[in-house]
Design a protein that fits this description.
The model has no long low-confidence stretch (mean pLDDT 90). Helices cover 52% and strands 2% of the residues. It has one domain (12-154). Helix 1 crosses helix 5 and helix 5 crosses helix 6 (90-98). The chain is mostly helical. It has a two-stranded antiparallel sheet. A hairpin with a 2-residue loop joins strand 1 and strand 2. The longest helix is centred in the C-terminal third of the chain and has 19 residues, at 112-130. The protein is globular. It has helices at 12-26, 31-36, 47-56, 58-67, 71-84, 90-98, 112-130, 145-154, and strands spanning 38-39, 42-43.
C-alpha cells in the first residue's frame, strides 16, 4: 500500500477503508434508490441518506471496523462519521482514540520531519474526535497525491509540469492491532 502523506487519509490503505465503509452503506440501498442517485455510472448518495443508514446499521458498521484488526480502520471510521455528521457513541469515540495513540506509531517513522507531521495530524484528529458532536460535519485535513505534487512544485522540488507525476512514497505505518 502506498503512503503519500501522514494525514489520516494519506494512504491507499485509508482510502480502501473509506470505500469499504461506503460500499457497506450502499449495500442496503434498494435498486430504485441506487438508480435515482446514479450519475455517470457512479452512485452519488446524498449525505442525509448515508447518515440515516449509518444510524440504522451502526452496530454492524462498528463490527465491520473491528473485524479489520487495524488501528487505521478505526481512524478512517472516525473521519467517515465526522464527514457525514453521523452518530458516534462514547464507546466508539473511546475505541477510535484508543487506536489513535502517538505511542503506537512514533517508533515507526525514522525521519523527524515525518514524525512531526504524523504527530501533528494525529493530534489534530484526536482533538476533533474528543470534541465531536453528532450532527456537526467535521473536516479532517486531507492531502491527495496531487496536492503533494503541487506543494513540491511550489517548493521547487519537482521542476516539471508534466501532468502524470506520482507523489513520492513515504514510509508506511504498520497499523495492525496486536492482540
Amino acid at each position: 500500500m502506498v503512503t503519500w502523506s501522514y494525514t489520516i487519509m494519506g494512504s491507499t490503505e485509508a482510502t480502501t477503508y473509506d470505500f469499504l465503509f461506503l460500499k457497506f452503506i450502499q449495500s442496503f440501498l434498494t435498486e430504485k434508490t441506487r438508480k435515482s442517485y446514479n450519475f455517470n455510472r457512479r452512485i452519488c448518495i446524498p449525505n442525509s441518506i448515508i447518515k440515516s443508514f449509518i444510524q440504522k446499521k451502526y452496530d454492524e458498521l462498528v463490527t465491520l471496523v473491528s473485524e479489520q484488526k487495524s488501528r487505521l480502520a478505526f481512524q478512517v471510521f472516525g473521519v467517515f462519521l465526522m464527514r457525514h455528521g453521523a452518530k458516534m457513541t462514547d464507546n466508539v469515540k473511546e475505541l477510535i482514540l484508543k487506536h489513535s495513540h502517538w505511542e503506537d506509531e512514533k517508533e515507526q517513522l525514522l525521519e523527524s520531519k515525518d514524525r512531526n507531521e504524523r504527530m501533528f495530524y494525529l493530534s489534530d484528529f484526536s482533538g476533533k474526535i474528543k470534541n465531536y458532536f453528532e450532527g456537526v460535519k467535521t473536516t479532517v485535513p486531507f492531502e491527495s497525491p496531487d496536492d503533494i505534487v503541487q506543494k513540491l512544485r511550489k517548493q521547487g522540488v519537482i521542476k516539471t509540469n508534466y501532468p502524470f507525476i506520482a507523489a513520492p512514497e513515504r514510509a508506511p505505518i504498520d497499523y495492525v492491532i496486536k492482540e
